[in-house]
Amino acid sequence: GLRFMGLFRFKLWWMTQRMGTCGKDVPFETQFLIVEGSEGSPLSTETIYVVFLPLLEGAFRAVLQGNENNELEFSLESGDPSVETSHGVHSVFVGAGTDPYEVITSAVKAVERHSQTFSHRERKRLPEMLNWFGWCTWDAFYTDVTADGVKQGLESLEKGGTPPRFLLIDDGWQSVDMDQNAKANEVVHSANFANRLTNIKENYKFQKDGKIDERQDDPALGLRHIVLEAKASHNLKYVYVWHAITGYWGGVKHDVAGMEHYSPKLSFPVQSYGVSQNQPDDALDSIQVNGLGLVHPKKVFQFYNDLHSYLASAGIDGVKVDVQNIIETLGAGHGGRVRLASQYHQALEASIARNFPDNGIIACMSHNTDGLYSSKQTAVIRASDDFWPRDPASHTIHIASVAYNSVFLGEFMQPDWDMFHSLHPMAEYHAAARAVGGCSVYVSDKPGHHDFDVLKKLVLPDGSVLRAELPGRPTKDCLFADPARDGKNLLKIWNLNKHTGVLGVFNCQGAGWCRVDKKNLIHDFQSKTNTATIRPKDVDYLPKIADENWNGDSVVYSHKGGDLVRLPRGAALPITLKSRDFEVFTVVPLKELANGITFAPIGLIRMFNSGGAISAYVSDPTSTTVSLKARGCGVFGVYCSVKPQTIFVDSMKTEFSYQDESGLASFTLRVPDEDMYLWDIRVEV
Fold first, then answer.
1. Which of 97, 106, 568, 589 could serve as a FRET partner for 347 with CA atoms 20 to 30 Å apart?
2. How far is it, in rounded angstroms, from Cα 466 to Cα 636?
3. Does the pTM exceed 0.85?
């Protein structure tokens, strides 16, 4: 029979996955659907994958949903009562093929050519901050963040040997205030969604010797002095700050000096029917009560450019632009949601291009197709709902959601799997996921609250990370399974490095989004152990990094187990995980050297993504010498079917150990003197 995996918005801002077998299982607000079936007769053994992409057409946005007759429907919506239609001509794209990931990529690229309104991820510039360890202020301080708090956080991580090179100053730095009669949001560990932006410059907490209700007009005494000092004292490479797409949660305040020339108008959100049938949201509820000061679309580039040029002059390198989906609720009177989103995104990207040359933007709370199909430059997108440190139900859900959402989002941008806490019961679980996600690695630890043993499996002493190259995605045999709810399947996530594959396996069972209660719930409190098998072919693109004459044999190294296993073509390795447990495997195609010797580099074996350390790998089937270039420090491992005669590091003979049973040769790389230094390694067999 048929199986599908769909991605739907369970609340205004975010998507999550839903698996099913019939039309009525397809939820409201499904923005991506892939169906697995067989071709032709029931006896056919060839699997066919069909992808459905609801699109933007003119002023309308399409979305999929099922009905009680097991039919698949699409709904068209403009978001403006004055903009109507009775039909859609190019509302849904359908593509089919025998490889699910190739079908998805081909479908999105076909839509790209048709629409000319967005660009595929492969054609976008990825900001360099992705390759460096970061610290975000949000879960450390929430909106109580101060300049001193920023300094404490940087110093604390630096002292432990994992220096951040990327800083994200989240919500709490801006100048905001409420209207006189507004109803404040008083939820703990949250923002006050009733506040509006009163000035594009920082508040007193980020001004030198700042005092409440006093403003320093000298830019040198504002954000600039904090940013430049942090870069000089802590060798920061990139500093980003947070802002909402509308300035702040409640938009821009219209009745304060300096903001009137943006022509903000009080607007009240109207959510679509599909969103209203899913999970309620505190932020949206507050904005619906208090309204939002919406900058006029004709003034929005000026607004962004004024804001971003000021930030750039203060040494800021980029912005996290949050609350993006609120635009879809404000289309009335502006020609509809699609037109308004297009105007805002064009202005935003034009300002980013002018002010932040490294394409410094992270899109957040932005899981709607209005934005995805309007983005030509933005290259990083938050992949799921937040990391919620105090919600036990959220952690396994988070890992499953980021992996499945990346199937679709990863065609548009590099998914960001969010920050996490390194000192937390689920810290290693989250850290391992970031290692296979291909995403940025950043934490939101409070100063002094760190687990450096966890962090040092992700972060090198120079502050760089071993980031995998692609968006991490579920393996093909997990794509239509339900590893959060079915009680039996483990979630396997694959990715590639330059010369190795990486495979994360997670027990995500026991919690999920409940369609009845419309929130995340733990549905199975009994700790269960589940078993799966791993195969080299789980790393879907592994042949792309293997030799042309590769016979399919590989080696697999387990991070937690420390085992190195040679797997012949077609062989499988069983793995059993307890509830909320994980394992990370490095998977490497074997290469043939002279005299029947086989070889494979593993990398820094105490790092989660060990193979990410290898930047060059040269061998010759007529020789018994292998050359590698690698970065980082610690124990470096290679597989060799016979004991090597000599190993050289930067032309210096190096001591190594060799395990006859597994074929693992290992040696130690010292901490290099230079950032991003590449060791020259030569193995003579």
1. 106
2. 14
3. yes
H or E element: which one contains 210?
none
In angstroms, the CA 355 to CA 26 distance is: 42
Identity at 419, one-letter amino acid code? M
Residue 612 CA, distance from chain mean position: 18
In DSSP terms, 516 is beta-bridged to none
Task: Report d(CA 296, CA 298) in Å as an integer.
Answer: 5
Q: List Cβ neighbours of 520 (8 Å cut-off, separation of 6 or more).
A: 391, 393, 394, 397, 511, 512, 513, 514
Give dist(CA 554, CA 129) in Å, integer: 33
d(CA 334, CA 616) in angstroms, rounded, equals 53
Residues in a beta bridge with 431: none
Q: How far is CA 309 from CA 306, 351, 371, 672, in A?
A: 5, 8, 23, 37
Whole-number Å distance between alpha carbons of 265 and 291: 10
Alpha helices in 187-277 (DSSP H): 223-234, 273-276
Cα maximum dimension of the chain: 83
Q: What is the pLDDT of residues 350-408, one digit of tens each?
A: 999 999 999 999 999 999 999 999 999 999 999 999 999 999 999 999 999 999 999 99
What pLDDT does residue 44 have?
63
Q: Are 463 and 162 in contact (CB under 8 A)?
A: yes
Please say whether the beta carbons of 573 and 586 come within 8 A: no
Cross-sheet strand order for the sheet of 625-631: 614-618, 625-631, 678-684, 646-649, 652-653
* Bridge partners (DSSP) listed for residue 520: 513
Q: Grade residue 541 by pLDDT with cuts at 50, 70 and 90.
A: very high
**Phi and psi angles of residue 53, each rounded to the nearest 5 degrees, phi first:** -120, 105
Q: Which residue has the tokens 């804001």?
A: 307
Alpha helices in 419-487 (DSSP H): 427-437, 452-455
Residue 43 has pLDDT above 70, yes or no: no
Residue 214's pLDDT band (cuts 50, 70, 90): confident
Q: Please state whether beta strands 238-244 and 318-322 pair in parallel, antiparallel, or not at all (unpaired).
A: parallel
Q: Which two tokens stand for residue 572?
A: 């499988």
- Alpha-helical segments (H) within 445-567: 452-455
pLDDT at 466 over 70: yes
- Mean per-residue pLDDT of the chain: 96
Residue 168 in contact with residue 498, Cβ under 8 Å?
A: no
